[in-house]
Amino acid sequence: MLFVGDDWAEDHHDVEIQNAAGKRLAAARLPEGLAGVARLHELVAAHLPDSDSGSDSEGEAVAQVWVGIETERGPWVQALVAAGYRVFAINPRQVARYRERHSNAGAKSDAGDAHSLADMVRTDGHQLRPIAGDTELAAGIKVLSRAHQRLIRDRTRQVLRLRQSLLEYFPAALDAFDDLTRPDTVELLGKAPDPDTAARLTRAQIGAAMRRARRPGIEAKTATMAAALRRSCLTRSEPVTAAFAAATRSLAGVIAALNSEIATLQRQLSAEFERHPAAAIYRSQPGLGPIVAARVLAEFGDDPGRYASARSRKNYAATSPITRQSGKKKSVHARYVHNERLVDALGRQAQGALVGSAGARAYYDLQRARGLGHRAALRQLANRLVGILHGCLKTGALYDETTAWGHRSTEPTPPDAADAA
Predict the structure, then answer these.
(1) Which end of the chain is more exposed for a tag (fewer CB within 10 A), N or C?
(2) Is the pLDDT of residue 149 over 60?
């Protein structure tokens, strides 16, 4: 077997190749790109055993090459996977802790990190998680899902900036516009970003913006908005107001552009998600609409061998607790090292399931009756829903309320739950 450590940077890779005894066979700094990958293959091939028995033997030999690298993304990593190597994406913090096992001086270098990575896959490869073999469709859904979520977060930042700006010179706008992300709101703020111009907006102009945004109850909302914009309020000097107005107009334009791009990505994400063979199973789960379901699929991936059991999937989802025990002391804690995007999506699913599933609601109420807070009870519910999802994916069955929760109706009610009721 050969063990390769790959310490990557933006424009180069420091690599080291070891044999099973830990002897360094080769070390080099390779450029990023096709030339670097080709050179790495040459170094590996120079130390693979000669094979004259055909492609099957060559494939088996390549599979005995284990590569440790501190990322799971990018064309370089995909090229390593495509070559047949077994690639392990190792957390940089794990590499740092491993380095400290062998040196207390604190020395660090790229070549040294490549050595540590090669050592890790050689000695601890059986405990490391190889990169998941997700399909290309799932990989594309992941890219779209994360891009969509990033744009939403970018919009939230711009909205908070806009809100703070309005508080400083035009607080009446916050009374008139209940949601600064709405298309009619950003349109009206773009046209009338200061108190004097906003007060001159007619009901016809306000109503037209609302109709373009397809808002219900236009007549009543138009009257309320016009009254709020014309209400007397404290103002700033003309130069300061003009400066704030220019900034508001720009922020409104940015938010409008983000709204358009978010809607475009959302349509594309929904379309790609519906193409996936497991889409129906995900959509059948309580609390999962198309977008949240796509996020859950993207972050879990669709490699059928990645999660050996429901417990393994729950551990990755960080919905299951961890136990710390030393001597007579034992404590249970939430998992704080996790995939933040997956945790967010599962939390949204649990919140939605409270309305969409009677069984989920009863389970949540039971956790609250045990004395858990809202967030802890939601996490317990999310943990249960992850187990249900794992079972559905394993069997290829759609979610069924009776199958998922029927067994709980026969369980005795805990005394504290009965007292709470």
Answers:
(1) C
(2) yes
pLDDT exceeds 90 at position 410: no
In the predicted structure, residue 290 carries a pLDDT above the cut 90: yes
Q: What local confidence, expressed as pLDDT, does residue 416 receive?
A: 45
Strands 2-8 and 12-18 turn out to be antiparallel
Q: How many angstroms from the chain centroid is the CA of residue 250?
A: 29
Residue 311: per-residue pLDDT: 93
Fold of 2-131: Nucleotidyltransferase; domain 5 (3.30.420)
CA 334, distance to chain mean position in Å, is 18
Q: What phi, psi does 322 have (nearest 5°)?
A: -115, 150
Residues 6+ apart with CB under 8 A from 414: 366, 369, 370
Among positive and negative, which fits the CA dihedral 217, 218, 220, 225? Answer: positive
Q: Is the pLDDT of residue 421 over 50?
A: no
Closest CA to 20 of 1, 33, 6, 37: 1
Highest averaged pLDDT of the listed ranges 85-89, 324-328, 406-410: 85-89
State in Å, rounded, how far the first CA of the chain is from the last one.
62
Is residue 162 a contact partner of residue 248, using CB atoms and an 8 Å limit?
A: yes
Residue 419: band (very low, low, confident or very high) from pLDDT cuts 50, 70, 90: very low
Q: What is the 3-class SS of the chain, one letter each residue? A: CEEEEEEECCCEEEEEEECCCCCEEEEEEEECCHHHHHHHHHHHHHHCCCCCCCHHHHHHHHHCEEEEECCCCCHHHHHHHHCCCEEEECCHHHHHHHHHHHCCCCCCCHHHHHHHHHHHHHHHHHHCCECCCCCHHHHHHHHHHHHHHHHHHHHHHHHHHHHHHHHHHCCHHHHHCCCCCCHHHHHHHHHCCCHHHHHCCCHHHHHHHHHHCCCCCHHHHHHHHHHHHCCCCCCCCHHHHHHHHHHHHHHHHHHHHHHHHHHHHHHHHHHHHHHCCCHHHHHHCCCCCHHHHHHHHHHHCCCCCCCCCHHHHHHHHCCCCEEEEECCEEEEECCCCCCHHHHHHHHHHHHHHHHHCHHHHHHHHHHHHCCCCHHHHHHHHHHHHHHHHHHHHHHCCCCCHHHHHHHHHHCCCCHHHHHHC
What length does the chain have?
Answer: 421
